[in-house]
Amino acid sequence: MYEWRNIIKSIILAGGSGTRLWPLSREKYPKQFLKLNEKSLFQDTVSRCLEISDINEIYVVTNESQKFFVIGQIEELGYEIPKENILLEPVAKNTLPAITYGMHLIKKRFGNDFVGIFSSDHILDKSAMQTIKNAEALASEYLLTFGIVPTSPHTGYGYIKPADPIGMAFKVLEFKEKPDIYDAKKYIKEGFLWNSGMFLFETTVFFEELEKYAPDISTAFRNYETIEEIYEKIPYISIDYGIIEKSSKVAVIKLAERWSDLGNFSALYNEFDKDENNNVIHNCEEEIINSYGNLIHSKTGKIVSLIDVNDMIVVDTMDALLICPKSSSQKVKDVASSLKDKNDERAQLHQTAYRPWGSYTILENSEGHKIKNIVVLPQKKLSLQLHHHRSEHWVVVKGMARVQVDEEQYFLRQGESTFIRAGIKHRLTNPGKVPLEIIEVQLGDYVEEDDIVRFDDDYGRE
Amino acid sequence: MYEWRNIIKSIILAGGSGTRLWPLSREKYPKQFLKLNEKSLFQDTVSRCLEISDINEIYVVTNESQKFFVIGQIEELGYEIPKENILLEPVAKNTLPAITYGMHLIKKRFGNDFVGIFSSDHILDKSAMQTIKNAEALASEYLLTFGIVPTSPHTGYGYIKPADPIGMAFKVLEFKEKPDIYDAKKYIKEGFLWNSGMFLFETTVFFEELEKYAPDISTAFRNYETIEEIYEKIPYISIDYGIIEKSSKVAVIKLAERWSDLGNFSALYNEFDKDENNNVIHNCEEEIINSYGNLIHSKTGKIVSLIDVNDMIVVDTMDALLICPKSSSQKVKDVASSLKDKNDERAQLHQTAYRPWGSYTILENSEGHKIKNIVVLPQKKLSLQLHHHRSEHWVVVKGMARVQVDEEQYFLRQGESTFIRAGIKHRLTNPGKVPLEIIEVQLGDYVEEDDIVRFDDDYGRE
């Protein structure tokens, strides 16, 4: 369709854990997979990459616990990504190892090639992809980074100072860490750009520079077979520290498009449509009196009432409520890490958990019983399993279920129910064309998720 | 025990509907019955009245929908109030009709008598009851009202200006409506008292003055038989407007005790214990950073996180979230009335509804199904009933249930379940000694509370 298709490959970095948008995002449900709009930021990123790469040329670096988001959300876009293009990091070691993992695989498969590197949790206008594509010729000589023309003296971004032009790019005079507001204003006057964390590399140039500035990583990828071995040997390091700020071959290309890393709730507020009182209201009924400039996001179906409240963030989920001024958005990650330090599972997961076969939401969790609303996607099935400590009652509230209990199989229609005794093998399948919804009442002396023995599983979890 | 026992009777006004502490209180669950501490304000009021009256001498004016709170909460105190002492107003007509209803009944039964009148939703130190008791002698000549020695220039209370002393009381120079802060300060300098809304009356004096200043009410109570007829004839009017501010027989007695009408969340904040950051935190886990002077009340079991938030009210219930500065507490009633205007049932009720037999909490309410956690108190039973539009699945999670379905009776133990088809008569009983807890899954094209036909009911609702 376009002559330049099939020329540039894409690596999407989708392994980040989410703490800065807690309690919307969780460690195991990071912001790139949140459906803040109809599509997630990850899905938007995939759509952008499809402007320069075929789906078979897109590589996603992520981890085991987020693999199902990656597959599922690409499926929702109507595409199927080859399984071998999903690269699972055994442990997060920042951007340089993740990018090298993708570059290494592409080089092994295809030899020399051009590769765009994209974060999965940024907002970017699609038109930027044309510029990135046009930069290809320069990538044979330079490690190309992309700098956004700033629209404000933002203190949450790194800055790049461009120097002499080289074709459509510029040499880089210096990189600056996140500045204070005074320096940020100075940078803007002096023509600095925001460091976007997007790159365009040729494999050959990349590995030459990697060998020069991070030989330990280069060596590990050459000498070890499994990704587990490699990741054991290499340091935790960003591509900026590791290569970009050191290499003399770096050039920057200006992008004038709308871009944001949505790094906190204040950035989220800025990106969304406001009502006539400058409030951003997501997902909830509200009863608001004399309140302006707030971000209100509720996932609980409850009514939210604000009176005389201005410039606040209010995020209400089933298990957590966050309230802070927009100007304190950057402190939200402190709450998430405090919870993590206490081993509080609300740092990691929501009441709603996503599974390869669908999702479940915990409606009530008390001593001796737990009640879940379970949604099974059409044609999907849960593993064949048993629980030692709990029995389960299932009532079908929507769709049709095929139930296997021991060797017996039967169907349940809307309004029908069944009972599964502790210690009995069972399996739930949605044989239909519409989502199956059941209410599960678990009863037993122990009703935690880890009381499960899996015998057969479509998703390799047995 | 005390020589003065059995001399003074008490009327407790407990018919108010709660909007000023929404969403904690609701129209059908007003603040006097909330368990803000271990005891409700109503229970505290009953305990105070027991200082001057036997339980048989306490009269409670309330309405049908709150009758079960009155009986239940007095039972919890270990007392049984005679059923004929609970007076049900067919419609709320403010304090003068309610007080006259009680006074009328006492006069009819006992002739002349002394009666203390008490709101059920105020905080008051018990020691005040001694003063009230001591005032009895004066009540043969005066309508006695009680004025609180002010501790601040409160703009939410009415004020009374005392004049010359008459024994332990004072003549009243004038009554003042809720003032602005300027006038409030002036009143305090001039020795005004807060109008507490408590009274001590002799029936004879009360009815003489009623005849003089509100003859329509006096006449209605004399001439009509049923309370419904009487309430149809009489106006909506407070005792202050109707009698107290007009009668020349009014005297005020000073009380120096701690008193508050808990008229809004700010008052609630003032009355409760603060932590080291001056936060009042009720019922919830919190993760609070740099936040001071807040009232946080959550009934949802979730974690509440505040960052850099000061002097705010945060009230989180299953179906509503309220956020406002303490200084805007008085606007909360506007939200409740706005909801009421929209016929939103969250103005009236909680997700948890209290019934004579126990309570239920709605866990999920979706199109076509509703899930409830139902608690049946020991030895209590629901009505014999049927639903046209919904079937019900019951799973016992605690205790034992006796189930009647059509003519059949059987028992369900913990972990057992049953299914009740639409159109079938059924009844649920707790035959045991501990509360019975069941999960009910309702399924049908219509799952609202009004799809119920009652055949037999312990509580006269058939």
TrEMBL record, chains A, B:
It catalyses: alpha-D-mannose 1-phosphate + GTP + H(+) = GDP-alpha-D-mannose + diphosphate. Transmembrane segments: none annotated. Keywords: GTP-binding, Isomerase, Nucleotide-binding, Nucleotidyltransferase, Transferase. GO terms for molecular function: GTP binding; isomerase activity; mannose-1-phosphate guanylyltransferase (GTP) activity. SUPFAM superfamilies: Nucleotide-diphospho-sugar transferases (SSF53448), RmlC-like cupins (SSF51182). Residues 289-337 form the MannoseP isomerase/GMP-like beta-helix domain. This is mannose-1-phosphate guanylyltransferase. GO terms for biological process: GDP-mannose biosynthetic process; polysaccharide biosynthetic process. Residues 343-457 form the Mannose-6-phosphate isomerase type II C-terminal domain. Belongs to the mannose-6-phosphate isomerase type 2 family. Its EC number is 2.7.7.13. Residues 9-277 form the Nucleotidyl transferase domain. NCBIfam families: GMP_PMI. It comes from Methanolobus vulcani. It comes from the Archaea.
